[in-house]
Each structure stands twice: as C-alpha cells, then as structure tokens.
Recover the amino acids of this structure.
C-alpha cells in the first residue's frame, strides 16, 4: 500500500463512493442524500483553491482504500491557523489501521503548511473514530448535544483537537 495525493480524474469516483456509503449507513456524515459527481467537482476545486491536500491510501492494485483531508475551519481571518479535518476509509478496509495512517499523514501535512490546530467533528457515538483520534494525541474540547438528527434519532457532535507546535512565528492579519 502507498500514500498518494488524490486528484479528481483518478480518485473522485472512489471518494464519492466512500462518502455515499458513509451517508447511507453511518453517522460519520450528517448528510441525508448521496453526493453527486458535480459535488465532487466543487469539493476538489475548493481543496485546490485553499491548497488543502487530499491524501489517499491505495492498495497494490491502485484501488483507493481511504482518504484524509482538511479545510477551512471558520471564515474569519483569525482562524487562519486552524483547519477541520476528516478521514474516511472504504468499508471493505476498515479496522486495519488505515485511518491512523491517513490521520498521521494529514497531521504531517498540516505541520508542513504551518497550521496550529486540527479540529475533528465526530459523532459522539462513533467510538472507533474517537479512539483513533485519542491514540494520536487529540483531546476532547466540547460536545454539541443534539446537533443533528439522522436515522430517527438526535446525534451529539463531539469536537476533538490537536495543537501543533507550528507556526514558529504566527502573525496577525
């Protein structure tokens, strides 16, 4: 297996499949309707505009097993050193440590880009994702009770953060 930088032409369809499986079957995404290829076009364009990586993990057959990325946390300029990340693994490859590999790659990329805080918004019942984040050093920083409603029930949204030692010289403005 190998880490790759994902691009639209090669990976959009696989990422779309991973997203849509998560939408249909999990509370990892608080969406109701499947995403479309048009959604993926806009998603990849936003990542490119913000210079946010889309990090993939492929098997020996070049099949995308999972991906990680991050993007803007909030729009106000003082948040410029904070990003919100996500990690998704294809249902066929879960529980093999791939999420941790992807998350560690995302953390390394954030350090290279001089971000200071990574934020993860995780369904509070997703014990696997919470354990993954805690294993690599994330700490809980809040819960929004009943933030979402899906599958006939209220969902609590837990926030986890990792504070990095970058940038060396943060600046205002």
């Amino acid at each position: 297996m190998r880490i790759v930088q994902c691009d639209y032409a090669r990976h959009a369809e696989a990422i779309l499949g991973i997203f849509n499986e998560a939408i249909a079957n999990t509370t990892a995404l608080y969406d109701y309707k499947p995403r479309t290829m048009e959604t993926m076009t806009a998603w990849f364009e936003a990542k490119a505009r913000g210079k946010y990586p889309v990090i993939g993990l492929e098997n020996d057959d070049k099949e995308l097993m999972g991906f990680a990325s991050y993007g803007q946390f909030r729009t106000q300029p003082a948040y410029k050193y904070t990003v919100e990340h996500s990690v998704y693994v294809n249902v066929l490859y879960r529980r093999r440590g791939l999420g941790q590999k992807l998350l560690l790659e995302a953390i390394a990329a954030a350090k290279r880009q001089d971000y200071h805080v990574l934020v993860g918004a995780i369904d509070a019942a997703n014990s696997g994702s919470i354990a993954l984040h805690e294993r690599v050093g994330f700490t809980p920083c809040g819960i929004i009770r009943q933030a979402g409603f899906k599958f006939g029930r209220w969902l609590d949204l837990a926030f986890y953060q990792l504070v990095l030692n970058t940038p060396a010289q943060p600046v205002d403005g």
Summary: The beta strands are 2-5, 54-58, 64-72, 82-89, 117-123, 139-150, 153-163. The mean pLDDT is 97. The longest strand covers residues 139-150. Helices lie at 8-25, 37-50, 98-112, 127-135.
